[in-house]
Design goal:
This protein has about 150 residues and is of the alpha+beta class. It has four helices and four strands, in the order H-H-E-E-E-H-E-H. Pfam families: Vsr.
Length: about 150
Amino acid sequence: MSHHGGVPNLETTDDVRARMSKQRSRDTGIEVALRRELHRLGLRYRVHQRPVRAVRREADVVFGPAKVAVFVDGCFWHGCPEHGTWPKRNGEFWRTKIETNRARDANTDQVLADAGWLAVRVWEHEDPSVAASRVRATVLGRRGRLA
């Protein structure tokens, strides 16, 4: 018996979809925290830009000269292996949606790579300072090679 007194969950797929669609996709808490850390580490960047015209998706943080594009991925939407959940209600719909997102992410990474860019993916559950250090090491490593 659940703590809801045995009342079944009456939430519909439309309800779930509406709630999910209201979630912020820009300037999320982790994204803002990551940018703050990157700035603190002395890095300068642009936000919400398409690194390559062929990629229709904006990167969350872009380092132009180093050709590094950072994407902050939500655990639910991008199927995080640690925290991703598969809703039971209308499971096939959500599984397809999340798998489609993952395939698009992989395609985005490949298109960027083909254009000489490197995509760095940060999960929303990551510690912002740890993620910022990883991004910084990547950017500095690429700057050295591209200089």
